[in-house]
């Protein structure tokens, strides 16, 4: 983990990868040199185009998707709109209550009689019926950090013939992901994948791709983009590249090194690291551990007091939907956890072994009562949880589907 962390300049007291990731040293170098080249009169479009393909290939590796099934994009809502535009009239779309608006709103405003139905995330699989055309959900919820039972939802959709669309924006980068479990996935890579904003990816299986109309086609959707600049753009790419939109060049220049770093990383080790820190933080605050470990911790903070305390100590956290939210990533360590707990008054003694709910802790005032966390579980359980199931430990298992089913069903 220290090797990965060495790719970052900062990170101390930054608990907000769920809002915005930090740029890697490689990203900073690449963007600076791209700017220098442009400023000196030699913008390098060919290099930017190579960066786009390097980013696409690295992302494909990371989410275990064939590279031909990956399209580039810039915003989640735009990718989701492509899917919405291809649904039949009067289709029913099922989403979790309170999921991120960029995933939900394109269906709400699709028109043509398209109906949006919502259900609590925990009951999403049960809510899929034979009348459901598409189940669209985030693998990890932005507002709560809850991890969806993706395997259960995918199985329910397969049973009834519904398609699945999964938003990986809050997951890819810390949670092992197998995009091929879903008909389509979307991801904006500026959070856990530490890319500049404006770098997004759509994966789509060939059978679902056949049902999607390339309504956003432009010159980059052509089989050869540089020969597709005029008129109707020539021949569309035969693979998912026909859903490409033209790339935000500089953003992709910065994205390629970050995505290659994450694709090369041992993601199960990163998962154990991030969820281990989150579990330590929850234990320090006396919060129950969720049924499926998450790198994001949220708790009720209607008055904003917890967020204000963190901010006052120079800790970057966030607040969403009346909850305080912290996130733990590769550039964080135990000291970040303890400093945040200290800021919240949740430890008496700063440092080793000091994870005690102290006098004046926000937890003691009952702010955590009713937090939607699931089954209680020991923080120490998390780093070894793959081992504990007797499933082959923390080295990457052979089958990507095995990894995803494993981590999502815990
Ligand atoms: C689950 C999820 N999807 C997508 C986004 C970003 O949406 P967009 O790419 O439309 O800005 C966020 C941002 O917080 C998010 O949490």
From TrEMBL:
Pfam families: Aminotran_5 (PF00266)
Domain called Aminotransferase class V: residue spans: 48-285
GO MF: lyase activity
Keywords: Lyase
InterPro entries assigned to the protein according to its UniProt record, in alphabetical order: Aminotrans_V_dom, PyrdxlP-dep_Trfase, PyrdxlP-dep_Trfase_major, PyrdxlP-dep_Trfase_small
Top-rank lineage group of the source organism: Bacteria
PANTHER family: CYSTEINE DESULFURASE, PYRIDOXAL PHOSPHATE (PLP)-DEPENDENT ASPARTATE AMINOTRANSFERASE SUPERFAMILY
Protein name: Selenocysteine lyase/cysteine desulfurase
Organism listed in the record: Microbacterium proteolyticum
């Amino acid at each position: 983990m220290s090797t990965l962390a060495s790719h970052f300049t900062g990170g101390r007291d930054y608990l907000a990868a769920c809002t915005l990731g930090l740029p890697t040293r490689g990203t900073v170098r690449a963007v600076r040199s791209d700017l220098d080249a442009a400023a000196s009169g030699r913008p390098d479009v060919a290099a930017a185009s190579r960066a786009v393909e390097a980013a696409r290939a690295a992302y494909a590796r990371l989410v275990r998707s064939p590279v031909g099934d990956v399209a580039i994009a810039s915003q989640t809502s735009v990718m989701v709109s492509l899917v919405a535009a291809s649904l039949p009239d009067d289709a029913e779309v099922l989403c979790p209550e309170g999921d991120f608006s960029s995933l939900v709103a394109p269906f709400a405003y699709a028109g043509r009689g398209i109906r949006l139905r919502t259900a609590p995330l925990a009951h999403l699989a049960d809510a899929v019926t034979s009348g459901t055309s598409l189940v669209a959900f985030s693998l990890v919820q932005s507002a709560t950090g809850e991890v969806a039972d993706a395997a259960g939802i995918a199985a329910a959709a397969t049973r009834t013939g519904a398609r699945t669309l999964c938003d990986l924006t809050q997951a890819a980068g810390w949670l092992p992901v197998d995009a091929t479990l879903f008909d389509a996935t979307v991801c904006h890579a500026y959070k856990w994948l530490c890319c500049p904003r404006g770098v997004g990816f759509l994966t789509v299986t060939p059978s679902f791709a056949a049902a999607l109309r390339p309504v956003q086609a432009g010159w980059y959707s052509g089989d050869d983009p540089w020969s597709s600049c005029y008129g109707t753009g020539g021949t569309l790419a035969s693979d998912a590249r026909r859903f490409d939109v033209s790339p935000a060049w500089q953003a992709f220049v910065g994205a390629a090194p970050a995505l290659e770093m994450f694709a090369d990383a041992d993601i199960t080790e990163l998962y154990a690291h991030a969820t281990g820190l989150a579990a330590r933080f929850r234990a320090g605050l006396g919060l129950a551990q969720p049924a499926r470990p998450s790198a994001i911790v949220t708790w009720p903070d209607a008055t904003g007091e917890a967020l204000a305390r963190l901010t006052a100590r120079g800790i970057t956290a966030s607040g969403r939907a009346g909850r305080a939210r912290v996130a733990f990533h590769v550039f964080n360590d135990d000291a970040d956890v303890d400093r945040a707990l200290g800021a919240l008054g949740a430890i008496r003694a700063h440092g080793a072994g000091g994870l005690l709910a102290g006098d004046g802790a926000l937890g003691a005032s009952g702010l955590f009562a009713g937090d939607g966390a699931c089954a209680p579980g020991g923080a120490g359980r998390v780093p070894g949880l793959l081992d504990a199931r007797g499933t082959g430990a923390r080295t990457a298992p052979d089958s990507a589907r095995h990894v995803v089913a494993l981590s999502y069903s815990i």
